[in-house]
Design goal:
The structure is a single chain. The protein is mainly β. It folds into two domains: 254 residues, Galactose-binding domain-like (Jelly Rolls, Sandwich), CATH 2.60.120; 209 residues, 5 Propeller (Tachylectin-2, Chain A). It has a six-stranded antiparallel β-sheet, with no helix packed on it. Strands 7, 12, 14, 15, 16 and 18 form a six-stranded antiparallel β-sheet that branches.
Length: 551
C-alpha cells in the first residue's frame, strides 16, 4: 500500500479542491492552499477548522488506512487535522460473514455520547471481501475490510443517518470512509451530507483500492438534528466503509459496542391507521393545536372497494396533536339513501370562512350508480355538521363526459381562498376521454362558475390538492394511473408546469394531502394495502421553490 497521505486544511469557499484530483491539479491546488493559508496566517485567521458552507467538503485524507495514532487511540492521524481527537467511530465488516454478506450487527462501533442513534436504509447489508484493503480499529487483533452496501440503489440514496443527542461539540468533524471498497462496481460516484434535509455539494470519490476519507466540518448541532449521508450509487450499488467522529476535545464519553442490527431510517413524523378499517381519500384541518382528520372509511379486506356493502357510507373522524397519538370520534355525514349521496360519501375538503367550517365532499347517487356531484356541509365546531339545503352545489361542467349508463366523473373537490373569492379544483373526464382538473370560482362558496380545465393530464387524476408556498402555488394529483406535482404563479390562470419531486419507494401511494401548519409544511399520503391502508406524514424542506421529502 502506497503512503501518499496528505491533509488539506478546510479551504475558504472559493478555494474548494477540484472534484477530480489528478496529480497535476492536486499540485496546483496545494500550492494555492499553501499560499492562501500563509496569507491568512499573517492576519491571524489560519485554523484547521476554517470552513465555508457547513455542508461543503472540508478536506480529504487519501490512502489513509492508519487513521489513528497507534500509541493513543484517542488521537487521530495528522492527515485528519492537527489538534483533532477521536470522539468515536463506526466501521463495517468487523467479523467474518457467511456468504460475504450479513446484517448490520457485523460492525466495530464506539459511538460518542452525543450520538443518540444511527440508522441505515432498508435493505442495507454489510459486505466483506478478503481481498480489499483493511483498516485497523483500536481493538487488539482487529481490522476491517467491509462496507455498508445497498444493492439496487437509485441514483442518490440516503444510506445512513446519525441523530444528534445532547452535548455535541461546538465544531464537529465527520469523516466518511469511501475507498476500501475495491473496484469501481462498489465505490460511489459521490457523497454528500444533509443536515435536517438541507444538502451540501456532492464530493466526488475516485477509487484506487486503498482507503480514502472525505471529511466535513459541521457547526454546533442542536439536540435532535439529523445528519443524512447520501450516496450517489455506481452501477446500482451504494456503499461506504465507515465513519469517524472528531473534534478538538478528547473528553467525550464512549458508548459500549452495540451487538444488534442498526435500526432502519424512518423519517415519517407520524402515521394513522385503525384496525378493522381501511381508509382512502381524506383531509387534515388544523384547529388551534389540534389536527382533525376526516376520511373515507370502510371494512378492511382483500379488495376494499367503495361499492361493497358497508363501505364509505360516512366519514371517519379522528384528532391528534402530534400525528402519532390519535383519538377517534363518531363518524359524520352518513349517506342518505335515494339521493345524490345515497351510495357513497367521499373525499372531504375543508375551508374556514368567517368563523364557519365548510366541508365540500363527493356524493355517489344510489339511483344512478357512478353519478357523482359535489355537496356542502357546514359546522361551527368540526364535530356537528349540517348539510346545505341546496345540495349538490356543483356538478360536472358542460365539457365533461357523461356516459350513456349515467356514470359521470366529478369528484375530489378542493377549495382554496384566492383574492376576494374562492377557487374549486375537481377531477373530471373530458368528452375526448382525457383526465382533467376542472376549475370553478365563487364569491360565496355556494354558487360556482365554470372556468374550464385547469390542466389536462393522465387518466383519472384524482385528489387534486392545491397549496401555496412563497410566491408559487402547487398542485398534487395522483391515482393508480399516475402522479404529478405541478406549479403555477397564479392558480386561476396557470399555466401549471411539472415540478421535479422524489416520490416514496415502490407502492401505491395516493391521495396526497398537505397540512399547512404556520411556516411548517407537512406532506401526507395513504398507501393502499389489502386488509387496511395507512396514512403517513412527512416534514417538507424547500430548496429553490422545490419541495424535498426524506422518506
Amino acid at each position: 500500500m502506497k503512503k501518499n497521505t496528505r491533509h488539506e486544511s478546510a479551504p475558504t469557499p472559493d478555494l474548494l479542491p477540484p472534484q477530480c484530483l489528478s496529480e497535476r491539479n492536486v499540485a496546483v491546488w496545494s500550492r494555492r492552499m499553501r499560499m492562501s493559508l500563509a496569507i491568512l496566517s499573517m492576519v491571524g485567521l489560519a485554523s484547521p477548522l476554517i470552513a465555508g458552507s457547513p455542508l461543503d467538503l472540508s478536506g480529504r485524507a487519501e490512502d489513509a488506512a492508519d487513521w489513528r495514532d497507534a500509541a493513543d487511540s484517542s488521537s487521530v492521524a495528522e492527515a485528519f487535522g492537527r489538534g483533532m481527537r477521536v470522539n468515536g467511530w463506526l466501521l463495517f465488516g468487523s467479523d467474518p460473514l457467511t456468504d460475504n454478506f450479513g446484517d448490520t450487527s457485523h460492525r466495530a462501533e464506539s459511538l460518542p455520547g452525543y450520538v443518540a442513534q444511527v440508522a441505515v436504509a432498508q435493505g442495507a447489508r454489510v459486505a466483506r471481501f478478503a481481498a480489499y484493503a483493511t483498516v485497523p480499529v483500536p481493538m487488539a487483533g482487529q481490522s476491517i475490510a467491509g462496507t455498508l452496501t445497498l444493492d439496487g440503489a437509485a441514483d442518490q440514496t440516503e444510506l445512513l443517518t446519525v441523530r444528534i443527542g445532547a452535548g455535541a461539540p461546538a465544531m464537529l468533524r465527520l469523516a466518511v470512509l469511501t475507498d476500501n471498497l475495491g473496484g469501481p462496481d462498489f465505490v460511489p460516484r459521490g457523497i454528500s451530507l444533509a443536515i435536517d434535509g438541507k444538502e451540501g455539494a456532492v464530493a466526488a470519490a475516485a477509487p484506487n483500492g486503498t482507503p480514502d476519507w472525505l471529511f466535513w466540518n459541521l457547526p454546533r448541532l442542536k439536540e435532535g438534528s439529523e445528519i443524512s449521508l447520501r450516496v450517489q450509487s455506481a452501477n446500482g450499488v451504494a456503499a461506504i466503509g465507515g465513519l469517524l467522529f472528531l473534534s478538538a476535545s478528547a473528553e467525550v464519553a464512549r458508548k459500549p459496542v452495540a451487538a444488534g442490527p442498526l435500526p432502519l431510517i424512518d423519517h415519517k413524523i407520524g402515521e394513522f391507521s385503525r384496525g378493522g378499517e381501511y381508509l382512502k381519500d381524506y383531509y387534515v384541518f388544523k384547529d388551534g393545536d389540534t389536527f382533525h382528520l376526516f376520511y373515507n372509511v370502510g371494512n378492511a379486506g382483500e379488495s376494499q372497494q367503495w361499492f361493497e356493502p358497508g363501505n364509505e357510507k360516512a366519514f371517519g373522524h379522528a384528532t391528534s396533536k402530534d400525528f402519532k397519538t390519535w383519538k377517534h370520534h363518531p363518524r359524520v355525514l352518513d349517506v342518505v339513501p335515494g339521493t345524490w349521496e345515497g351510495m357513497v360519501v367521499s373525499a372531504p375538503s375543508i375551508i374556514k370562512h368567517e368563523g364557519v367550517y365548510y366541508m365540500f365532499y363527493t356524493g355517489f347517487d344510489d339511483r344512478v350508480p357512478g353519478s357523482q356531484t359535489i355537496g356542502l356541509a357546514t359546522s361551527r365546531n368540526l364535530f356537528k355538521w349540517q348539510r346545505h339545503e341546496g345540495n349538490p352545489v356543483y356538478e360536472a361542467p358542460p365539457w365533461a363526459e357523461r356516459r350513456a349508463d349515467g356514470w359521470v366523473d366529478c369528484r375530489d373537490a378542493h377549495v382554496i381562498k384566492h383574492g376576494d373569492g374562492f377557487l374549486m379544483f375537481t377531477m373530471v373526464t373530458t368528452k375526448e376521454g382525457k383526465g382533467a382538473i376542472a376549475l370553478a370560482e365563487s364569491n360565496n362558496l355556494i354558487e360556482w362558475k365554470d372556468l374550464g380545465p385547469a390542466v389536462e393530464t393522465f387518466k383519472e387524476p384524482e385528489s387534486p390538492r392545491v397549496f401555496q408556498n412563497g410566491e408559487h402555488f402547487y398542485m398534487f394529483i395522483s391515482s393508480a394511473y399516475g402522479k404529478q406535482l405541478l406549479r403555477a404563479a397564479n392558480p386561476k390562470t396557470g399555466p401549471w408546469e411539472p415540478v421535479p419531486f422524489r416520490w416514496p419507494a415502490p407502492g401505491l401511494w395516493s391521495g396526497w394531502e398537505v397540512v399547512e401548519d404556520g411556516n411548517r409544511t407537512i406532506f401526507s399520503a395513504f398507501e393502499w394495502k389489502s386488509f387496511g391502508n395507512h396514512i403517513r406524514f412527512w416534514d417538507v424542506h424547500w430548496r429553490d421553490n422545490v419541495p424535498e421529502v426524506v422518506y
